[in-house]
Amino acid sequence: MPQQPPIRSTTSPPPRPDASMSLLNNVMDHSLDEGYAEAAARRDAAEGGLPNTLRAKLWLAAGLVLASLVVTVGAAQARISAPVVAKEREELIDRIDAETATADELESSVETLRAEVMARQRAALRAHGGDTGETAALLAGATPVSGPGVKLVVDDAQESGSDGGGPRGSSGFSDTGRVRDRDMQRVVNGLWESGAEAIAINDQRLTALSAIRAAGDAVLVDNRPLVPPYTVLAVGDGKKLSTAFQDSADGQYLHSLQQNFDIRTSISEQDEVRLPAAPSLIVRTAEPEAADAGKGDGQSTADTGKGTS
Fold this sequence. Notes:
Layout: H1 22-29, H2 34-46, H3 52-140, E1 145-155, H4 181-193, E2 198-201, E3 204-205, E4 212-215, E5 218-221, E6 224-226, E7 230-235, H5 238-247, H6 249-261, E8 264-275, E9 283-288, E10 302-307
Antiparallel strand pairs: 1-7, 1-8, 2-3, 2-7, 4-5, 5-6, 9-10
């Protein structure tokens, strides 16, 4: 039985759903008008036709060249000015060395003049006072002394403690582990009271006119700064002096500083200690006026002169 050939449909395919939206499709597919596209192409051709990426690379290269030029110019200027700076530095160092040498010479001259003044003071005492003058010079600190005594060393604490009361709980010091001027005042007064005949702190001889003061954290003796540890040498009977000082109120004060604030102290008897003379000494003396002075008004006055010993 013959087969029937397949029947082919002669109808057209079904239309697209958006066939009625051809205008919108055209706008979406060709967002740039053909006329504008042609104008942009002509403009690129007139400007050389360089793509945007190539133009950006050229600008970057120009910026790098400019930065390199600035760095090169700066380096050249620095190289030119380097010898000038080095020369000024050398001149400044030379000036500092010269001024330091001048200061050393002046200090040496001061020491020489001080020694000369002390020698004249001793000579004047011997000439006018005899044995009494020598005794006065010894008591006034105008001559060096030596003999048995004690050595007392006072030093700052290794680590400063907080303010926790004690001898200087109300002092207001932020660092209570440092030795202060008033601590050294009490030490010296305690030694004088215990029978010391002469005292020196760090080879700085103390006299009746000496002052222990503070400048910031520094301790000054007669306006000379001292550096810890403070070594106090006192001439006297070593055993009696040591015992009397430790039993005194000032010795107990120092012991309290050691216990409460870790201030380091040590005292020892010495067979011989040597104390230098005071660097400078001015003794003020008062002398009565002549008998006929002040007769006109019935009053007499005393003239105060200044002498050296």
